Amino acid sequence: MKGKKLITLLLVLVLAVSVMLAGCGKNDEPAPAEDKGQQEEKAPDNNANKGKALKLKVEIFDRGNSPQGSTMKDNPIANWIVQEVKESTNVEVEFVSVPRSEEVAKLNVMMASSTAPDIVFTYNQDLVANYAKNGGLTDLEPYIEEFGPEIKKNFGDFLQYGQFYGKQYAITGKGPVTGAAHVSYIRKDWVEKLGAELPTSKEEVFTLLRRFKEEDPGNVGKDNVVPYAMAAGKTEKYYENFVLSYADKLEEKDFYIYDEYLRIIRPGTKEGYRKLNELYNQGLISPDFALDTSEKQYKQDIASGLAGFFTDDRLKPVDQGWITALQKNVEGGELWPVNCFENAEGEYYRNAGSRLGLRIMVPKANEKNAEAAIKYLNWMADMKNYANIKYAMEGVNFKYDEQGIPEFTTTMEDREKQGIAKTYMNDYAILYRNLDFGSQDKNKLLDVKKYQADYPEELISTIWNVRFDGIPYDRPYFTIPVEADSKFGPNLKTVLREMAAKVIICTPEQFDQVWETEYNKFMEAGGSKVYEERASVYDEMKSTK
Amino acid sequence: MEDEKTMKKSEQKRNNIKNYIKRYWQLYALLICPILYFVIFKYGPMYGVIIAFKDFNIFAGIHDSPWIGMEIFKEVFASSEFYRALRNTFLLNLGDLVFSFPAPIILAILLNELISVKVRRITQTILYIPHFLSWVIIAGIMYQIFASKGVINLIINAFGGQSINFLGNNVNWVIVYLLTGIWQSAGYGTIIYLAALTGVNPALYDAAYVDGANRFQRIWHVTLPSIANTITILLVLQLGKIINISFERPYMLGNALVSEVAKVISTYVYQVGLEAGRFSFATAVGLFQSIVGLVMLITVNRIVKKMGQEGVM
Q1: Hey, of A101, A115, A134, which one would you mutate to test binding to chain B, going by the most B CBs within 10 A of its CB?
Q2: In this complex, which of B167, B272, B277 lies closest to A130 when CB atoms are compared?
């Protein structure tokens, strides 16, 4: 009995303390007070907007990485947006957080039960096409016409990427040309210690991987080295560039058919998987990568200095502070971007990062709030406002240089202390992928300036060069939705990733057999239907053009 | 004469009912909450099963989506993924039945034989603590123990052995899955058996003792028969559930490499229904599962009754 009481008491105490802490977090924020001053000055211009405030609920991705005391609803950026938008458009924004990892499942449930926020979004094109087909989305055209002058001005033709079945069912976020989507990084200090050069071809990478393992340049213990780090998150980034370098040259039609999640099984890629299988069986790839769905082990291997080489989203190691973490853990530890997967023609051929951002939608059930939604997006379409979100408020965390390029005045760590997680800026700034100055040089400078408080200029500009060194191409885009993709796509993505893991991990003797079984599974699960329909939709698209 | 009699009888009856209600209404009032619970949360949602026969459009709602008859079921039964999920559900549950089901019985008997009450209590508590851990945590622990660089493999390596791929090999994974299940649920499962054991008349033990039965004979002839009924009921329930599988356990413990054996109906429904948004398909799979489950339960119950046990219905 006594034990029970004690436990209850403890629980109550924990609860009380956490409530108190949460309360403190709120009081500590000085930002809103400063902002008020600014807004009072602005207020007179906006008299026209006074009247009954419109309410608006906006989805926001929650990555579970909020700093202590911050939540997705309550942090300096969110608070700033709420206040600014209220002032200038008389719309009262409320953020509704949705866990990033189960975003699609959650969105499906919210849409089905008509409990979705007024602004919802996803990167998943098939999902949007599906909603559009079932009549679940608001046609935004009349609203953009009336309340979205800034959107019209800045998006122009780009608005077509949000059209489905001839209606403006979404606004697809706009982004600058970004070069390669994924970039490989190598431990430069290890390479130097081995007296080698940075790799420029696959063979050189293989040699280095082997040497990483055998010679252990980082002195981390031969059994601990992870020459080629991989994980099994919901993406193909770890091996996509690699297997693509084995792919055959494609006709335009096949380009369309084998795009998106089918890229990783383009004709020819099988040999790439065979090579990965060989590397895995030589112990050069993270042994348990297929179990590492949360990327926990993967990130740990990179940050603690066990990983020698990996491929990831182009700026992830920079954005997420992996490089900083590595430098803290290992003296002289240095990750460097390299281009090393050449194809049969000797070109670095990678898939280009998409210019398309989030597909932003207003559910049909929420059409009454479409006006507020477009007013909000129109506010964000203004580059000044957008930059204020993307760089966490002028005067607080950034300033403009003489060319009008924003530059952070604080480091990631500083911002974290203010209660701003590394990913917040991207997650709240939904309308564009990034600022775009229209010229490569300026956009490059933008990247360099963005990270100058945290990283040396050379690193960032090398990443930029690596991204654009190679064959860039415009990603194909189906103007007619492929229904088989909406139906089978989400499941097929899982099936393909499982297939990749299995063929990489099996023994070399089993490779062909596993490949065949898994490929048949994929075809049966809807793969063949997707092939067929994509081919016919391509023909239809060409004939109507 | 006759009429009067019946009148009297019916009046008496009415009085009886009145008295009965007066006397026991509180008991019925107590029933209201649980019944409401079942109506609202268990029977109400059954309306949704008609999604399986409709081309469900999440925006039109269940009522307004068009009927398409058995179309979806045809698709389900033509899908090899479905059969794989079905097979895995059966196999994993069968494994649980064979290995996890007897575990709490054995544990309960062992605990029952302990003389020191203190030791028994402590042991019992330690044994059922895992039941309160979520599968997310258990999966994390499993990973630490069974991964290539996990505790067990480190020990094997230290003795010069080759690492064993516990989590990526189909057979090994099933073993890990079953062991984890035993570890998680055996302790908690003993509670019911221990409760049944407290009801055993101590005189029976004394009599057996006097008759010269040793400890093992006492267990065999007194303890086991006294809990036989409980065992049967739980077995029936377990068999009835052989096609139902929890979601968390296979989902958390499973991984891409063993999807061949780890993808079960619940995870398949989640993947196809919620992640891929094919609600009709998922509902059809779920409905099929429920019907098979019901048939199983009734059949097993019949068999048990034939065998002279009480059963659950």
Answers
A1: A134
A2: B277
Sort A7 into a burial class: Cβ within 10 Å, 0-12 / 13-18 / 19+.
exposed
Chain-chain contact of A111 with B59 (C-beta, under 8 angstroms): yes
Read off the tokens for B222: 């007194």
Contacts of A452 (CB under 8 A, 6+ apart): A407, A408, A460
Q: Report CB contact under 8 Å: A134, B58.
A: yes
A:54-113 residues touching chain B, CB 8 A cutoff: 104-105, 108-109, 111-112
How high is the ipTM of this complex?
Answer: 0.75
Helix (H, G, I), strand (E, B) or coil at B310: coil
| Biggest CA pair distance of chain A | 80
Gap from B290 CA to chain A (nearest CA, Å):
22
Q: Where are the domains of chain A?
A: 40-177+355-428, 182-351+456-544
Q: Cβ contact (<8 Å) for B148 and A490?
A: no
Rounded CA-CA distance A176/A516 in Å is: 40
CATH number given to A182-351+456-544? 3.40.190.10
Q: Do A291 and B274 touch (CB under 8 A)?
A: no
Residue of B nearest to A106 (CA): B274
Question: pLDDT by residue (tens digit) across B28-69?
Answer: 899 999 999 999 998 988 888 898 998 888 888 888 888 988
- Candidates B154, B274, B285: best to mutate against A (most CBs of A within 10 A) is B274
Encode pLDDT of B177-236 as tens digits.
999 999 998 888 888 888 888 888 888 888 988 988 888 888 888 888 888 888 888 887
Question: B289 Cβ partners below 8 Å, 6+ apart?
Answer: B89, B243, B244, B265
In chain A, which residues have their Cβ closer than 8 Å to the Cβ of B143? 291
Q: Do A106 and A114 touch, CB atoms closer than 8 A?
A: no
- Minimal-distance CA residue of chain A relative to B255: A291
Residue whose tokens read 């690492």: B163
Cβ–Cβ of B79/A136 closer than 8 Å?
no
Q: Do B255 and A232 touch (CB under 8 A)?
A: yes
> Can you tell me the distance from the alpha carbon of B167 to that of B93, in angstroms, rounded to the nearest whole number?
19
Residues B245 and B214 placed together within one structural domain of the fold: yes
| Model pTM score | 0.80
Q: Answer whether A85's CB lies under 8 Å from A91's CB.
A: yes
| Same domain for B129 and B6 | no
| In a shared domain, residues B242 and B284 | yes
**In angstroms, what is the C-alpha Rg of chain A?**
25
Give the three-state DSSP class for B212: coil
CA atoms of A171 and B224, how far apart (whole Å): 69
